Amino acid sequence: MYEMKDYKAAIEADQRVIDKYPGAAASIRRSAWIVVAHGSFELAEYPRAEHGYTQVLAVTPEGDQSRAALVDNLAGLDLQTG
Fold first, then answer.
1. 3-state secondary structure (DSSP) of residue 3
2. Angular region, 76: left φ>0, alpha ψ -120 to 50, beta rest
3. Contact indicator for 23, 30 with CB cutoff of 8 Å
4. Angle, to 10 degrees, between the axis of helix 67-81 and the axis of helix 46-58?
5. Burial state string for 27-63 with b = 16 or more CB within 10 A and e = fewer than 16
6. What digits encode the pLDDT tens for the residues 18-32?
7. Which of 5, 25, 38, 49 is the most buried (most CB within 10 A)?
């Protein structure tokens, strides 16, 4: 859904995964939060995007190569809302 740019449906589906399976593996929770964060950003739902990026970073190890881009996305939200 996300790749088809149906951001609202993608967010809703992944939020259901997050809510229904809180004990899921970190990789699954991380993937779901990434969709929520990116999709929310695309829809200009910046508070939800910020929360999503914060959650993604919480389950992303410090040494992970994607961490810098996630931090940049979170910082970019300040420019959108500031």
1. coil
2. alpha
3. no
4. 160
5. eebbbbbbbbbbbbbeeebeebbbebbebbbeebeee
6. 999 999 998 999 999
7. 49
